[in-house]
Design a protein that fits this description.
Number of strands: 11
Shape: globular
Strand content: 5-15%
Distance between the termini: 63 Å
Largest sheet: 9 strands, mixed
Order of helices and strands: HHHHHHHHHHEHEHHHEHEHEEEEEEE
Number of helices: 16
């Protein structure tokens, strides 16, 4: 239980910020919509009377009250049966005095909000860890730290308690139990989640497995997110795998639109139906036919996920900072979500202590430390979309040099995919026409068949869109340097479908 004198101290230190924030919100009730209840409510306040008035204000705001005065308040106090509490806390005069005082201090709302959140954290830390939280210790003084710094400081302390100096190392004997592990590998194959509608891509790296970081590189605006949505998000929905999406470019509404576009595309392709014009989802005013297609897509998704509406968790980050990413990864991993897609990975914002490429490399080291199976990791399956450097737009062959100065990020990944559109001269009849091979089942009497399959040559027609997928690095199998061919997809962006066509060879021309 929290020590009473500490509780009193904290209440005294935060009371001004609690009063001022409440006064500002009562002067402008529209602020309640900008600071939702899951971020701050009456329980966030240490002083009950300011928590009471703040909560009362939120309730009145929800009822549409735009001006808070003693007359409008009386009605809601009676409706909520709060007359006794209202009188005990001094009634309207208590807030009115503060409302007048903060009339010209609205620009400080974020500062007051941050203080209140900080002291709520301090109270919870004291309950958990005791009075040491408020005791100065060397350079540590809670007065001089913000909420995030306090969280990081005490989180590191707790982590160190659980991990002694040797916990980062897992000792094993390489030659021990070899006969047993062969049986284990046979019975428990190291296969990951298959990519949606992609046997060939899945075969490359045996799927998206835990304990690994996968990088998907693509040029800006070229379909990185669309590709990842079709191959990764749709697979998680189909296989009922929980997924956390950490986004910093597209909103949840944009992802929902992409989900329904993809669903309609899959339905139309399977049934050979006329599709839905993608731009119409933004234009609105749907026709009855369009509404029917959208509703059919909704029902299809519900059936696919079997009603598990919380299967995909979406978190939007206004500012991409690796420490915040790590907190989210830990938080949701502790709640059973061990598949994570980051869209889009980039150097942490606000870091001026090192070059962007160096910061990016360090960020990926932190992501890998959390993803790995051993060494204190959380055994996560992490998929990170990364934008390739514009300088690589002229590269026919893609490898780590397409990351520009950040090429070292590949060191932390088990698998690195990179994609680009097929170039004009690579289509049928072009100077550098790609020879695409797909292996199809052969007739029983075909003497040229190999393992029951025969190679079929496919020409890339100019009235279609194709992408090539490079496997730049692959700890789980071959990559393009060690003999793996480049995978070709036919892409319909209107439907957001990515269909495997076959394999091709693109030689490394050393143009980087």
């Amino acid at each position: 239980m929290i020590v009473i004198d500490i509780e009193k101290l904290l209440k005294e230190e935060i009371i001004i910020s609690e009063a001022c924030l409440t006064g500002i919100f009562w002067n402008d009730p529209n602020l309640y919509a900008l600071y939702p209840e899951d971020k701050i409510d009456r329980k966030t306040f240490l002083n009950k009377h300011w928590g009471f008035f703040f909560g009362l204000g939120r309730y009145m705001s929800k009822q549409g009250v735009q001006v808070f005065d003693d007359i409008s308040i009386v009605k809601y106090i009676k409706d909520l049966d709060l007359e006794d509490d209202y009188e005990e806390y001094g009634g309207f005069e208590t807030v009115k005095e503060v409302m007048i005082e903060v009339q010209d201090k609205a620009e400080n709302v974020d500062s007051y909000y941050a203080d209140i959140k900080k002291y709520k954290l301090i109270k919870e830390l004291v309950i958990l860890l005791g009075e040491k939280v408020i005791e100065p210790n060397g350079k540590y003084d809670y007065h001089h730290l913000n909420k995030e710094q306090l969280y990081t400081y005490w989180n590191d302390k707790i982590v160190k308690l659980g991990l002694d100096g040797d916990a980062k190392y897992d000792e094993h004997h390489l030659l021990k139990n070899l006969d047993k592990v062969v049986d284990q590998w046979s019975e428990n194959p190291a296969t990951g989640l298959p990519f949606y509608n992609s046997k060939k891509m899945t075969k490359i790296c045996t799927g998206w497995d835990y304990g690994n970081v996968y990088i998907n590189g693509g040029f800006g605006g070229s379909g990185k997110t669309s590709f990842s949505f079709y191959k990764v998000v749709m697979s998680c929905i189909e296989k009922k795998e929980k997924l956390l999406v950490i986004a910093n470019e597209q909103s949840v509404e944009e992802f929902q639109k992409m989900l329904l576009i993809t669903a309609m595309g899959i339905i139309a392709t399977e049934n050979e139906e006329k599709g839905f014009q993608r731009q119409r989802i933004n234009e609105g005013n749907f026709t009855e036919s369009e509404k029917a297609k959208l509703q059919k897509a909704v029902e299809w998704v519900k059936k696919l996920c079997e009603g598990e509406e919380k299967l995909i968790t979406f978190v939007f980050m206004e500012n991409y900072i690796i420490e915040d990413v790590k907190k989210l990864m830990r938080y949701y991993a502790n709640r059973g979500i061990r598949r994570i897609m980051i869209d889009t990975g980039k150097p942490s914002e606000g870091s001026a202590s090192m070059a962007r490429w160096e910061r990016f490399t360090e960020d990926f080291k932190e992501i890998y430390k959390l993803a790995r199976k051993n060494g204190g990791g959380l055994n996560l399956a992490v998929w990170v979309n990364v934008q390739l450097a514009d300088s690589a737009l002229s590269h026919r062959y893609l490898n780590e040099h397409a990351f520009g100065d950040s090429k070292k990020i590949k060191n932390e990944a088990s698998v690195v995919f990179m994609s680009r559109p097929v170039w004009d001269d690579e289509y049928r009849g072009g100077k550098n026409e790609l020879k695409v091979i797909n292996y199809v089942p052969a007739a029983a009497d075909n003497k040229f068949a190999k393992d029951g399959y025969v190679a079929k040559t496919i020409h890339l027609e100019r009235d279609k869109t194709y992408y090539v997928l490079f496997t730049t690095k692959n700890r789980r199998g071959q990559d393009n340097k060690t003999g793996l061919k480049v995978l070709v997809f036919e892409v319909d962006f209107n439907r957001n479908t990515w269909t495997e066509v076959g394999w091709t060879t693109i030689f490394d021309d050393k143009s980087y």
